[in-house]
């Protein structure tokens, strides 16, 4: 809980990325990261938090996302306008390189930001959708490690899905 | 040159979440790419619900799915061939079955379906032109599936007081009933199903809208007659 001496002042946290870059964020943004919200609720959040699995490039994006979502939700606009705004923002936000998308997804999972995790999963899924097996292998750089027998078995297993 | 995507950076549960956004066809494609993804696609949590409506489902298809259906909770399908094939899924823990369109199905098929899925809590059946379906099928459902909470039947024209009384006797948790185009629904028998909270009836000639008998069911909180 916030200390009684700083009631009027906005509480800030310093988040340190894997590569040592420090970001200053307000509490309203920090709590969107479920891992930090839990620390705060458990009263064990220190003002300086190291995030070992996230690079500065990705953390900057994550903070941009959380900041926009926090501001839109507390901005006093009507729910439908806020929803529209977030939708537009999310769409633009997902307009990034596929590798960044993968990093974002992984970070959202690690930092436990449900909405960003679902958004990145949906976007990644839309990239995979309607692709052939060969296209998926190429896209994700997956090597075919099936034996001839296994490949036959897996084709048979899923023959129904292609009908 | 653009870097290749390296999906191995994603933990397994993230990949599973990703897979849950995809339809079976796309999952099948992923499953067919490499061993790791084949194993992930088999994950139990992806096989809680199965919607076979867009796919042709016969006995051999159902048998090929059986290894994944041990914990299947919800199933949706259409067509009489699928209705007969479903038993090959061996999905004994099913809680919910929805049949969207079924024609030429028999009492025997429905009775077998009910007998094999005793844990059923919700059953929705949409039948068309099923002249061979009698009240016995519903009686079998009532006896075999005592945990039923929700029952929606469309086009089961022969349902009579006997069948409804069987529901009243064997299914104490039945709260939500829908009879659509079930011509012979008996209002007096309906009054015996005291557990019912939500009732929806449409295109049925036997129910008088005075619902006198139903009023006897003192626990009836809400009644909808469509």
Automatic annotation (TrEMBL), chain A:
<dbReference type="InterPro" id="IPR016073">
    <property type="entry name" value="Skp1_comp_POZ"/>
</dbReference>
<dbReference type="InterPro" id="IPR001232">
    <property type="entry name" value="SKP1-like"/>
</dbReference>
<comment type="similarity">
    <text>Belongs to the SKP1 family.</text>
</comment>
<dbReference type="InterPro" id="IPR016897">
    <property type="entry name" value="SKP1"/>
</dbReference>
<feature type="domain" description="SKP1 component POZ">
    <location>
        <begin position="12"/>
        <end position="70"/>
    </location>
</feature>
<dbReference type="GO" id="GO:0009867">
    <property type="term" value="P:jasmonic acid mediated signaling pathway"/>
</dbReference>
<dbReference type="GO" id="GO:0006511">
    <property type="term" value="P:ubiquitin-dependent protein catabolic process"/>
</dbReference>
<comment type="subunit">
    <text>Part of a SCF (SKP1-cullin-F-box) protein ligase complex.</text>
</comment>
<comment type="pathway">
    <text>Protein modification; protein ubiquitination.</text>
</comment>
<dbReference type="Pfam" id="PF01466">
    <property type="entry name" value="Skp1"/>
</dbReference>
<dbReference type="Pfam" id="PF03931">
    <property type="entry name" value="Skp1_POZ"/>
</dbReference>
<dbReference type="InterPro" id="IPR011333">
    <property type="entry name" value="SKP1/BTB/POZ_sf"/>
</dbReference>
<protein>
    <recommendedName>
        <fullName>SKP1-like protein</fullName>
    </recommendedName>
</protein>
<keyword id="KW-0833">Ubl conjugation pathway</keyword>
<feature type="domain" description="SKP1 component dimerisation">
    <location>
        <begin position="114"/>
        <end position="161"/>
    </location>
</feature>
<dbReference type="InterPro" id="IPR036296">
    <property type="entry name" value="SKP1-like_dim_sf"/>
</dbReference>
<comment type="function">
    <text>Involved in ubiquitination and subsequent proteasomal degradation of target proteins. Together with CUL1, RBX1 and a F-box protein, it forms a SCF E3 ubiquitin ligase complex. The functional specificity of this complex depends on the type of F-box protein. In the SCF complex, it serves as an adapter that links the F-box protein to CUL1.</text>
</comment>
<dbReference type="InterPro" id="IPR016072">
    <property type="entry name" value="Skp1_comp_dimer"/>
</dbReference>
<dbReference type="GO" id="GO:0016567">
    <property type="term" value="P:protein ubiquitination"/>
</dbReference>
UniProtKB/TrEMBL annotation, chain B:
<dbReference type="InterPro" id="IPR032675">
    <property type="entry name" value="LRR_dom_sf"/>
</dbReference>
<protein>
    <submittedName>
        <fullName>Protein ARABIDILLO 1</fullName>
    </submittedName>
</protein>
<dbReference type="InterPro" id="IPR001810">
    <property type="entry name" value="F-box_dom"/>
</dbReference>
<dbReference type="InterPro" id="IPR006553">
    <property type="entry name" value="Leu-rich_rpt_Cys-con_subtyp"/>
</dbReference>
<dbReference type="InterPro" id="IPR036047">
    <property type="entry name" value="F-box-like_dom_sf"/>
</dbReference>
<feature type="domain" description="F-box">
    <location>
        <begin position="4"/>
        <end position="50"/>
    </location>
</feature>
<dbReference type="Pfam" id="PF00646">
    <property type="entry name" value="F-box"/>
</dbReference>
């Amino acid at each position: 809980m916030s200390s009684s001496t700083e009631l009027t002042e906005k509480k800030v946290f310093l988040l340190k990325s894997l590569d040592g870059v420090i970001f200053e964020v307000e509490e309203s943004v920090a709590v969107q990261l479920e891992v930090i919200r839990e620390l705060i609720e458990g009263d064990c959040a220190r003002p300086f938090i190291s995030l070992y699995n996230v690079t500065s490039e990705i953390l900057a994006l994550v903070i941009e996302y959380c900041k926009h979502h926090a501001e839109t939700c507390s901005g006093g606009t009507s729910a439908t306008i806020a929803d529209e705004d977030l939708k537009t923002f999310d769409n633009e936000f997902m307009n990034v390189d596929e590798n960044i998308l993968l990093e974002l997804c992984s970070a959202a999972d690690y930092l436990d930001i449900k909405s960003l995790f679902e958004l990145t999963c949906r976007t990644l899924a839309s990239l995979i959708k309607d692709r052939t097996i060969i296209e998926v292998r190429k896209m994700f750089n997956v090597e075919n490690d099936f034996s001839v027998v296994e490949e036959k078995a897996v084709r048979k297993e899923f023959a129904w899905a292609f009908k | 040159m653009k870097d290749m995507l390296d999906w191995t950076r994603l933990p397994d549960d993230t990949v599973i979440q990703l897979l849950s956004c995809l339809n079976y066809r796309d999952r099948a494609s992923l499953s067919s790419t490499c061993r790791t993804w084949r194993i992930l696609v088999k994950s139990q949590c992806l096989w809680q619900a199965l919607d076979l409506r867009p796919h042709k489902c016969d006995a051999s298809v159902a048998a090929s799915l059986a290894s994944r259906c041990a914990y299947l909770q919800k199933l949706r399908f259409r067509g009489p061939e699928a209705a007969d094939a479903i038993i090959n899924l061996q999905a004994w823990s099913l809680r919910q079955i929805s049949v969207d369109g079924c024609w030429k199905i028999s009492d025997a098929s429905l009775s077998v379906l009910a007998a094999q899925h005793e844990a059923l809590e919700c059953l929705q059946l949409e039948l068309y032109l099923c002249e061979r379906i009698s009240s016995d099928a519903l009686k079998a459902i009532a006896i075999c599936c005592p945990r039923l909470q929700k029952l929606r039947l469309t086009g089961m024209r022969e349902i009579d007081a006997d069948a409804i009384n069987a529901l009243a006797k064997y299914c104490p948790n039945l709260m939500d009933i829908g009879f659509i185009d079930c011509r012979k629904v008996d209002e007096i028998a309906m009054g015996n199903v005291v557990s019912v909270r939500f009732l929806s009836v449409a295109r049925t000639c036997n129910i008088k809208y005075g619902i006198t008998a139903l009023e006897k069911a003192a626990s009836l909180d809400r009644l909808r007659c469509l």
